[in-house]
Amino acid sequence: MSEEKIQKDQGRGMDRRSFIKTTGIVTGSALLGGFHFVRRAQAQDTGPIKLGFPIPLTGPYGTEAKDQQAGAELAVAEINAQGGVLGRKVELLVRDDKLKADEAARRAKELIESEKVHLMSGVLSASNQLAVNEQCKLHGIPYISVSQANEITMRPDNSIYTYHEALDPYQTTQAVGEYVGKKYGKKWYFLTSDYAYGWQMTDGFRRKGKEFKAVDVGETKHPLGTSDYSSYIPRILAAKPDVLFLDNFGKDQINSAKQATAFGLKKKMQIVCPVLLMSSRMGGGPEAFDGIIGGTSFYWEMKHPTAKKFVEAFQKMHGRPPIDYAGYAYSGVTELLSAVNRAKSLDPEAIAVAIEGRTYDNYKGKQWWRPCDHQSQQDVFIIKSKKGKSEYDVFEIISTVSGDKERLLRTCTEVGQDPNKPIRSGLIKKEAK
User: Fold this and answer.
1) What is the fold of 170-296+382-406?
2) Domain 3-167+306-373+422-431 adopts which CATH fold?
3) Are 134 and 102 a contacting pair, CB within 8 Å?
4) Are strands 119-122 and 49-55 parallel, antiparallel or unpaired?
5) Which of 163, 187, 269, 378 has a 20 to 30 A CA-CA distance from 41?
6) Where are the domains of the chain?
7) Residue 412 to residue 333: CA distance in whole angstroms
8) Can 3-167+306-373+422-431 and 170-296+382-406 be said to share one CATH topology?
9) d(Cα 431, Cα 433) in Å, to the nearest integer?
10) pTM, full prediction
11) What are phi and psi of 110, to 5 degrees?
């Protein structure tokens, strides 16, 4: 099954059990109602703490995946330099999921059952996150997601084992939509990548646009991996929007930005990318992205003290600045490993207690863990592409949209969780030795 088809099924409400059956990765325990049992790790185990890390090293998101790996490697190196986890070294086990949900599920299952990983992180794309998360829930493995997705913190996908370090499309669009609604015109058009990520970005902007009385003047959906956007341009021009949202990612964003520039759209409208990455900007070049604005979770030239420390350490290890997906992975892996040390245990419930409600600052400023759904709250930065003085000097931060007091999040009730209790759904009983 193709990535595009799986993601479409996700966005159209395919239930979780049907999705598992579709990928062909269902295990016997998934068919048991209520609790199931997994083997308790031996208390006397003194080998390495193993962290599984499936990512799409091949495919259209390969550049971003390599930065995820680089961020995770730095986090593991720093933790090991400080004595490791529970006095044991941490081993990072990277696997290529090829941006395919069935492959992601297989790799996660292999990491859990064959490699005996204790913890899981990684993945890029909503459907792959859900596939890996499902395997972690079935086996009782804490998993911290480091890529945007709305479903990962919602029932039925969420659980006590599930954490989401990244922004989600809802947070991103509420922040970027707020900035655009205050600064630019009211006629909005959407060029939407036709899978869950694109749909959710467009839906989020439409929701935010209502607050500013924005008018939806049109939407064009395009397949994942589109190279030629010329047939879409006349429709966009005919609608005469004030703002064009490029609700796509990676190579799709690069190609659509290049062609929007070539057809002169920037002279007639403001172009906005909800997630504007340094990798895309560098891949597309300064001309293609000149004047385009967007949102980001991190930019390497931030002046915050922890940002400077993170960038210096990353550059020392990898010889270049990090992009925001490196930041997600660095912070997510750091949070998960440090939580085990604070809990003094690999017990998932003890880890949850060590994380829930915590305020932290790993690489860019204050973040907060919401107990009801294990979603990280954080500020969103609005950036604008520029022609810089050096290779990696590509953006300027033009605004910060606060994430304080859950203002950018869906409510706990909206995602199907109890606002007054930390999440405990899916807790697995451990089999006695």
Assistant:
1) Rossmann fold (3.40.50)
2) Rossmann fold (3.40.50)
3) no
4) parallel
5) 163
6) 3-167+306-373+422-431, 170-296+382-406
7) 24
8) yes
9) 6
10) 0.88
11) -60, -45
